[in-house]
Amino acid sequence: MGDAGSDPLGPLASFRLDARVAVVTGASSGLGAHFVGVLVRVGATVVAAARRIDRLEALAEDLGPQVVPVACDVTVDADLVRLAEIGAERAGGAVDVLVNNAGIGFPRAAETEPIDMFRSVVDVNLNALFRLTQLVAVPMIDAGRGAVVNVASMLGQVAAAPVKQASYCASKGAVVNLTRELACQWARKGVRVNALSPGWFPSEMTQGMWTDDASLRFVAEHCPMGRRGELAELDGALLFLASDASTYVTGQILTVDGGWTAR
């Protein structure tokens, strides 16, 4: 029998990301900022990307030198190229983890949603995600390793009703199946692609819900757990998908929604 004290972390060691480099988009607030903190606390250096550089710099000041702030508009191809280059430079080759978190959504009835609004949501939530993944995955494939975590949504798996979110649901549904496709294309090349699919959580997009009595009742009545999720309840799922704890997992959608999609 081995020495139980030789590895104090035991099975938890595989969740560590010491000496690894991650890129997180949409990192200036909400889920993205929280994810940066989670990854830093398990040892990763995190290239944190968003348009609001002041918020990223504040995050770096709070979390320390393991956070590398990068101003990036994910709808601008040149910004994505630069972000991928900075990540590769920090990693000395291939980035270890990519967390595609940037996303937008605007509640609007489908029959009145302007087509430009629909296009902008798809551009941020899907097109930019694909382009950055492409840029980061090429060095990953060359290195024969890497983990991509796409932040989807339970609304990419079920309708948002009574909330009206055609463009958001369409884009996140596409992210769900793009995750499966990329996972299968790259499975034998050492690159794993999975999706984290949150339910109702506090974020900039949902902040109006948590001060509105009708919205609170809606979540309490329809979520099997009777409440919204708290950000810390995403930590385990994120680390599982980003780390060596999931080396035989690819093409999966890990849904953290209090039972919403099981109804």
Q: What radius of gyration results from the CA coordinates?
A: 18 Å
- Helix percentage range: 40-55%
End-to-end separation in angstroms reads 46 Å
Mean pLDDT across all amino acids? 95
| Unreliable segments of 5+ consecutive residues | none
The CATH first-level class comes to: Alpha Beta
Instruction: Specify the number of helices.
Output: 7
Shape: globular
Q: Describe the biggest sheet?
A: 7 strands, parallel
The spatial strand order of the largest sheet comes to 3-2-1-4-5-6-7
CATH architecture: 3-Layer(aba) Sandwich
Counting DSSP E segments of at least 2 residues, the number of strands comes to: 7
Comma- or semicolon-separated keywords:
alpha/beta
Outline the fold blueprint.
Blueprint: E1 21-25, H1 30-41, E2 45-50, H2 53-63, E3 67-71, H3 77-91, E4 97-100, H4 115-143, E5 146-151, H5 166-186, E6 191-198, H6 213-222, H7 235-242, E7 253-256
Parallel strand pairs: 1-2, 1-4, 2-3, 4-5, 5-6, 6-7
Helix pairs in contact: 3-4, 4-5
